[in-house]
Amino acid sequence: MPDLPARLQKLRVRDLLLLEYISESGSLQRVAERLHITQPAVTMAVQALEDAFGAALVQRGRRGVALTRLGEAVLRRVVVGRKELAEAYALASNPEAPHIRLGCSPIASLRLLPKALERLFGEAGHDEFRMSLTESAVPVLWDMLEKGDLDAIVCAMPGAAQMDFTRPGIALETVGLERMVIVASRRSVVAAGRADMATLAAQRWILPPKGSLAYPMLAEWFAQAGLPPPLATITSASFQTSIAIASKVGMVTLVPESAALDMADTLEIEIIETDSEWRQASLVFAYRTTSECQPVVATLRACFSAGAP
């Protein structure tokens, strides 16, 4: 890693916070109040920050101040650095109980996390670690990882990216595979045998939100059959809720195969066979490379990888 230029080495953490506070408030006066200094002092600090970076980071207008496009790009990196510094301080304050911030998609929480933690607790020296677990949708998890709010995540790849995926400061490895399937109540008219696409399109559907990863897969699948995607009678982000409703009211839904298999017997649902095969999506353990030096992160990664296909 190259050394920092001398003009950047003179900056203080408070100087870097200026960009964050300006972005939030749009007012140098409010920034001054927040930092408990005078507005002229803030103006001088902004000038010193721009001199250090050799570019304009803040622009002034009739409605106050705002970051330039370059200022916004610098801010994204600075925020990540501030969060990394806070985590480093927390680690130094309590080195005997390292803290990991892990994010999981719902399906990863059910399928992969319990077994990985079972392996982790079986490893010597990891009895005292602390974990903050965030369960959310895949796009949200990737955004939080990139912003430095999480150390690692376990979920599907973002968007349609299944190969040639690169993000600065983030590494990943495949720890599982998941196939999306269509599910209906065993009393449904489509549960009697193999269903064609036209029949499926005519059913009442419980669908994931259009912003989810599963919905574009469904739309693509129907498009290959020359059909528009089905309309959602109910929109639900919870696979478990979708399965439970489908089992009671005779509707059709799209869920991960593992979730359907887990609930098949108790809720009397059936995976609907079709003429088309869903492609499998990769589940990955992705982590910030700055977290790799933490032994608990490296061990947790190994625990997830141990269950990979």
TrEMBL record:
Keywords: DNA-binding, Transcription, Transcription regulation. Pfam families: HTH_1, LysR_substrate. Residues 11-68 form the HTH lysR-type domain. The keyword Lyase does not apply. GO terms for cellular component: cytosol. PROSITE patterns: HTH_LYSR. It comes from the Bacteria. InterPro entries: HTH-type_LysR_regulators, LysR_HTH_N, LysR_subst-bd, WH-like_DNA-bd_sf, WH_DNA-bd_sf. GO terms for molecular function: DNA binding; DNA-binding transcription factor activity. Belongs to the LysR transcriptional regulatory family. This is LysR family transcriptional regulator. It comes from Paraburkholderia antibiotica.
